[in-house]
Specification:
Elements (H helix, E strand, L loop, with lengths): L2 E8 L2 E8 L5 E7 L7 H8 L3 E7 L16 H13 L8 E6 L1 H16 L5 E5 L5 H5 L8 H11 L23 H4 L7 H6 L4 H9 L5 E6 L5 H10 L4 E6 L10 H14 L5 E4 L7 E3 L5 E14 L24 E4 L6 E4 L2 E5 L7 E8 L5 E9 L3 E3 L3 E4 L5 E7 L25 E13 L1
Parallel strand pairs: 3-4, 3-5, 5-6, 6-7, 7-8, 8-9
Antiparallel strand pairs: 1-2, 2-4, 9-10, 11-20, 12-19, 13-18, 14-17, 14-20, 15-16, 15-19
Helix pairs in contact: 2-3
Length: 445
């Protein structure tokens, strides 16, 4: 199937339109800050499937006019683009708002704006969604994502092009964290706004609960935004499908295009796809109608460990071997009783301590038969309840789970200074002994 390409402007936003040589069966809209031209190969692949594609540089990026204000006004600009598509002769097919990472934010905000304006949307397809300024800056328990935020703002910047700057040595050690933006090269002028941004979980849940169009959400257990992906699916008001697998933010190996095409076929046919699929486990796909709740509680003994912000416990990647790290004195390693061979859901940890002020962190790991201590979930909290990242794990015979309690996870998260100074504005640090009376681990049933 041949493809015709048109470059145009929609309200000052550079827009590419890729059309099949017959009437499209659906239309994808992809709005991105990462250069719409980079989507040409993907667009041609969709056109070969009879699907039209509209790609667009968000305001202030690449060939679009205006100033780039990350995570602002994407709903209004997306709605204007959606209305423009509907006015085209080829725009009568179901319109799918599609996006990965930041583009997923664009898709969700456009769907919300369209619902408020009474404009029809055929469906929303998102992957590893970066849902907002606050949602990318903090986890659900309020801890600041230091490494990823410095990395994103240096790599992509606030201008029309991405400078691609890497994090220089020593920058993440800066105190106060509030000075990172000024000390970075180039400076991050929006840094104060970033570190003060709040999550909008309650407001967003209310907004998406009113949507009635279908949703496909794809996420990775090793992705920063795994829980946000699950929460979006859980809160969606229309028919919603979730696919989670053992992927990171790149989604390598996820076969996402095939899954998405099957979902689009269902949308075009007027059928609804619902439920969740968890992939990557040895026993095959786990099908769910709801995300498993934490119903099985285990009380574990406490203990004590030192915590020093000048030598913080290091953050490690999903699947990493924690054997060497847990030999450090600044953590509490707790072996768990025997558990079922498959664990799927979102665990939570409740720390019982007289030292209630401060950050608390936890890692969930599997003691593998080959001797590795494999990290399978992590969490950091500004209080004594820690919501870990989603888990999809399989334990072979003889393997067991381990909970590791800690005070820092650096540089993934900004350090707790433990001096009662604000951890983003303060400079004074203090080494302390963390006293734990007991720990309650809430696991999916």
């Amino acid at each position: 199937m041949t493809c015709s390409l048109t470059d145009t402007q929609v309200d000052g936003l550079h827009t590419n339109v890729f059309l099949p040589d017959t009437a499209p069966r659906s239309v994808l809209i992809i709005r991105t800050p990462y250069d719409a031209a980079a989507y040409r190969a993907e667009a041609h692949a969709w056109v070969r499937r009879g699907i039209a594609v509209v790609t667009q540089d968000v305001r202030g990026r690449h060939r679009s006019r205006g100033r780039f204000r990350p995570f602002e006004n994407e709903g209004a600009d997306g709605l204007a683009t959606l209305q423009w598509v509907a006015s085209r002769s080829w725009g009568g097919a179901p319109v799918i708002l599609h996006g990965t990472s930041y583009s997923a934010h664009c898709a969700v905000e456009t769907a919300i704006a369209a619902a408020e304006a009474g404009v029809d949307v055929g469906g929303v397809s998102v992957a590893v969604p970066a849902l907002g300024l606050g949602e990318t800056a903090r986890n659900i328990d309020g801890c600041f994502y230091l490494q990823s935020r410095v990395g994103w703002w240096l790599e992509h910047g606030e201008g029309p092009e991405s400078p691609g700057v890497a994090i220089p040595d020593g920058l993440l050690d800066t105190l106060p964290v509030a000075d990172v933006g000024r000390r970075a090269t180039p400076p991050i002028s929006a840094w104060e706004k970033v570190i003060r941004a709040d999550r909008r979980d309650r407001e967003r849940r209310a907004e998406v609960s009113r949507l009635r169009c279908p949703l496909l959400a794809v996420g990775g257990m090793a992705d920063w935004f795994a829980q946000d992906t699950v929460d979006l699916w859980t809160s969606w008001g229309g028919p919603a499908a979730l696919v989670m697998g053992p992927w990171d933010h790149s989604l390598r190996g996820s076969d996402r295009a095939r899954r998405m095409e099957s979902w689009i076929d269902d949308v075009c046919a007027g059928t609804t796809t619902t439920g969740a699929q968890v992939l990557g486990l040895p026993g095959g796909t786990v099908d769910l109608t709801r995300w498993p709740s934490t119903e099985a509680s285990t009380v574990l003994p406490g203990g004590r460990f030192p915590a020093d912000p000048t030598d913080p416990f290091p953050s490690m990647a999903h699947g990493a071997d924690l054997s060497e790290a847990t030999a450090r004195p600044d953590c509490l390693v707790l072996d768990l009783p025997n558990h079922s061979d498959v664990v799927v859901g979102t665990p939570a940890v409740r720390v019982h301590s007289t030292d209630a002020v401060g950050h608390w962190g936890a890692l969930l790991a599997i003691r593998r038969s080959d001797g590795r201590l494999e990290q399978t979930a992590h969490g950091m909290s500004t209080h004594t309840t820690i919501h870990l990242t989603p888990v999809a794990a399989h334990l072979d015979t003889g393997e067991s789970m381990v909970l590791i309690l800690l005070a820092h996870s650096f540089p993934r998260h900004a350090r707790d200074l433990q001096s009662r100074n604000d951890h983003l504005a303060g400079t004074e640090t203090r080494a302390v002994i963390r006293e734990v009376e007991s720990v309650t681990l809430d696991m999916p049933a």
